Amino acid sequence: MHISEGVLSPPVLIAGAALTVAGVAIGLKKMDTEKVPLVGVISSAFFVSSLIHVPVGPSAVHLVLNGLLGLLLGWTAFPAILVGLALQALLFQFGGLTTLGINTFNMAMPAVCCYYLFARGIAHKHRNLAIGLAFGCGFLAIFFSAILVALSLVFTGESFLAAAKVLVVAHLPVMFIEGVITAFCLGFLKKVKPEILEVTHASG
Amino acid sequence: MQADNIPPKPQELKRVLTMAFALTLVSVALAPLASAHKVNVFAWVEGDTVHVEGYFAGNKKAQDSLVEVFDSSGEKLLAGRTNERGEFFFRIPKITDLKIVLTASMGHKNDFVIPMSELGEVSSQTRSESVDRTEPEPSEQNIVSGQVTTAVNLTQLESIIDTALDRKLTPLIKLIRASRQEGPTLSEVIGGIGYIFGLIGVALYFMSKKKN
Fold first, then answer.
1. Chain B window 94-113: which residues touch A at a Cβ cutoff of 8 Å?
2. A56, B161, B162, B208: which has the highest count of C-beta atoms within 10 A?
3. Average pLDDT of adjacent 10-residue blocks, chain B of 212 residues
4. pLDDT tens per residue, range A97-122
């Protein structure tokens, strides 16, 4: 879901960049010393996850992991995704530097939304229920991102419904896979370190 | 593992970090199987026709994608859509640097430039053969009007050589196109991870300075 250079018009790019700057500012404010290593390691997982292709469906799609990022990082998902996307743009030529703002927002905002929707429930509920919620978190984060990308493309003249349909259909397999990955990671975390989810929830 | 000797908090952090690091390593291990997620364009000249191919990583074709062709001054010459095999063909409209821009769905876009020199070789042949060409410029054959027979033979010879070369070169061109599927290399992936780890270090350095 990396939007390439030269697709979007300047107003959309500037709006995306402004929203991302705001999100990153909030994220950095909420990032304390103890959280830095976690943010960094999760950011590098995000950085490489886009190399894992999902060879199902009509188009080329890859993992995003933004549901997992949101769940573990909250608002600090913004700086984590910004760094990951910037390196993907520089090293892999995915997306581009001018679209960095809008791409970061399209991936990170759903992460933050899913954090508010699911983190509390996942931290406190029964294990199986938490795993179910984690699946929903991974699934919905991709869905929201697809909708946001479709919204960004509206201004290029593509009709929203057509673009949204293409994006959502293409990412259906990814939604399921990310749901499973998020559920798996959460199950593991619940077992070895349930505190991290509560800590994340406290500090955002 | 001597993890049991470490006090509880670092141990937990260590476990989480190990988990996340393992996830990263698995991703790196899988990375060579996949390649870049962006749309690629490749185009080559065959006779008076330009072949355009659009494809995603893993050789997935960019079907029904918009192809636009611009000249060197940025003026749009023609447009069309790729077929179900991700291909698009057009006759050379003008001898100029051709910039071929492919716009695929989901905000993917890329371009490919065919320099004028690659078109120049076919121009004379193209002009003498195709009737529907616009303004016929005086080509070299017309100037040497005294030796018409030789000129015609030369033209024929040229076109024979061109067809033969096209036939021989097509597999090579396909090979070049296949080798252009440059996914990120392992060193780029590891370099990126190294960058992020470096950023962690920088962030921690400044944060610890602030504390003291």
1. 103, 105-110
2. B162
3. 47 68 61 52 81 74 82 83 84 83 78 78 47 46 52 80 81 72 74 88 85 67
4. 888 999 999 999 999 999 999 888 88
- List the alpha helices (DSSP H) in A9-126: 10-30, 36-49, 66-73, 77-87, 100-124
pTM for this one?
A: 0.69
Cβ density class A113-150: b for 16+ within 10 Å, e for less: bbbebbbeebbeeeeeebbbbbbbbbbbbbbbbbbbbb
Tell me what pLDDT residue A193 has.
76
Task: Indicate if B44 and B77 belong to the same structural domain.
Answer: yes
A169 close contact with B: CB closer than 8 A: no
| Same structural domain, B132 and B73 | yes
**DSSP state, B136?**
P
Give pairs for B197-205: CB < 8 Å, separation 24+.
B197/A40, B197/A44, B199/A40, B199/A83, B200/A36, B200/A37, B200/A39, B200/A40, B200/A41, B203/A31, B203/A36, B203/A40, B204/A33, B204/A36, B204/A37
**pLDDT tens, residue by residue, A75-101:** 999 999 999 999 988 888 788 888 899
ipTM exceeding 0.90? no
| Residues of B in Cβ contact (< 8 Å) with A192 | 12, 15-16, 19
Q: CA-nearest residue of chain A to B24?
A: A45
* Residue tagged 């995003």 (tokens): A64
Residues of chain A numbered 7-66 and touching chain B (CB < 8 Å) = 7-8, 31-34, 36-45, 47-53, 55, 59-62
Range of the domain at B207: 186-212
Q: Is residue B28 part of a domain?
A: no
User: What pLDDT is attached to residue B129?
Assistant: 45
Q: Which pLDDT value is given to residue B32?
A: 40
Q: Could you give the C-alpha distances from B66 to A171, B105, B108, in angstroms and in order?
A: 22, 9, 11
Same domain for B48 and B94?
Answer: yes
Q: What is the pLDDT of residue A56?
A: 64
